[in-house]
Write a structure and sequence with these properties.
- By secondary structure, the chain is of the alpha/beta class.
- It is 34% helix and 22% strand.
- The protein is globular.
- The structure holds nicotinamide-adenine-dinucleotide.
- Nicotinamide-adenine-dinucleotide binds next to α2.
């Protein structure tokens, strides 16, 4: 199935159901079945933390394109249950010391790097050098340089690179992209988005600069930035940013507690954003000269809720990671290059903006980006 066919069948399926299912966080909504009966892609999960095991693995299980063939973990106690359930071969069970042995694992086509942000570049580059295609979680890496190195390594080894931008496969966010593309609410002039949560455990890697790369901006602020970009379909020309106050010097000794920014797009659209590890908020609002759209929750696992000046957004509530793995399965099987919207190209664009936000917040003043 081609990329376009995949997107089209996806959108068609979305249109098929008019009622959003009630959704509890521990209960997954019924999924329309993706049909594919060709050879499955063998995937290895690198890091067996929360996101890999609780979220991505069920998506792999539900998608007809994938089969878990390997795991990479530094915690031996995590091995037996997965080994038994997925009938994993010993040679496909690796750790961080013998990771280069990936090159000798023909069952593994793609690795999915679900490690702390500061480890994405190293483990993506090593996988590419072992001849494996790569999916890495967001944010793509800790810096622009790391993103460029990852792209270079994948190019040199002739493997594909994707970034886990699941919202690019999710019905509400796809609809938001369509609104922007088709000017459903006229020209969008103002966007506001806030995404924050309370990061309470002072020992978590997300509060460590080396592993997190930064604070909430790297973790969840990236969703607001990415959504503003895919709603407008353009890159910002400038940004001004400010760090918020530090209310807890223990937790926020290395990374920001919060940051807000004011961004302008080349068509004079203004985007104000806020992200925090000390405030629970998740909203996206866009105002055009003929109406508005608001989503909240907008990016987390759901149920996403959307309203517009024309009425409620009537999209299907889905299990995001199944849709992501279905979409990415078709893209990895396709002979075409990975499309920019979920590739290293997209990850690098977000990283350039994140870098400009940090620079502005640190040094003051407007950063010109275009
Ligand atoms: P987590 O802490 O639950 O898992 C991290 C894994 O990395 C663990 O298995 C841990 O053992 C392993 N690890 C290896 N070396 C480590 C080290 N030096 N320090 C800490 N852990 C180490 O984290 P997570 O929530 O699963 O996040 C993993 C990645 O997934 C992050 O990049 C995060 O941004 C991303 N993520 C994405 C989404 C999404 O919706 N796309 C959601 C959550 C997390």
């Amino acid at each position: 199935m081609s990329i376009e066919e995949n997107r089209r069948s996806f959108i068609k399926k979305m249109g098929g159901s008019a009622i959003a299912l009630p959704f509890l966080s521990n209960k997954r909504p019924a999924q329309p079945k993706e049909t594919y009966d060709g050879k499955k892609l063998g995937i290895a999960l690198v890091g067996l933390g929360y996101y890999a095991v609780e979220k991505i693995l069920p998506g792999i299980d539900e998608s007809p394109y994938w089969e878990l063939k390997g795991i990479v973990t530094g915690t031996p106690s995590k091995i037996p249950a997965l080994k038994e359930k997925y009938n994993l071969k010993d040679e496909n069970i690796l750790n961080y010391d013998n990771y280069a042995n990936l090159a000798n694992c023909p069952d593994i086509d793609v690795v999915y790097v679900c490690l702390p942000n500061g480890m994405h570049a190293e483990y993506s580059i090593k996988a590419a050098n072992a001849g494996k295609h790569v999916i890495t979680e967001k944010p793509m890496a800790n810096s622009v340089k790391e993103c460029e190195d990852m792209m270079e390594a994948c190019k040199k080894n002739n493997v594909k690179l994707a970034v886990g931008y699941r919202c690019h496969f999710e019905p509400f966010n796809l609809e938001l992209m369509r609104y922007g593309r088709e000017n459903t609410f006229g020209k969008i002039n103002y966007i506001q988005s806030m995404f924050g949560w309370t990061a309470g455990n002072p020992k978590m890697w997300r509060l460590n600069k080396e592993l997190g790369g930064g604070g909430p901006l790297m973790d969840v602020g990236i969703y607001s930035i990415n959504a503003a970009r895919y709603t407008k379909g353009m890159e910002p020309r400038s940004v001004v940013a400010h760090f918020g106050p530090v209310t807890d010097k223990t937790r926020f000794s290395e990374v920001e507690e919060s940051v807000s920014w004011h961004m302008e797009f080349p068509d004079d659209t203004v985007f104000t954003g806020f992200t925090s590890y000390n405030t629970n908020v998740e909203k996206f609002q866009a105002y055009g000269d003929k109406g508005w759209v608001e989503m909240g929750p907008a990016f987390s696992y759901g149920p996403i809720v959307g309203n517009t000046s024309k009425g409620k957004m009537d999209m299907e509530v889905v299990y995001h990671q199944t849709y992501q793995m279905n979409g990415m399965g078709a893209l990895f099987l396709s002979p075409d290059p990975m499309p920019d919207h979920c590739s290293g190209v997209e990850g690098l664009k977000d990283m350039k903006i994140i870098t400009a936000i940090y620079e502005s917040a640190r040094t003051g003043g407007k950063k010109i980006m275009l």
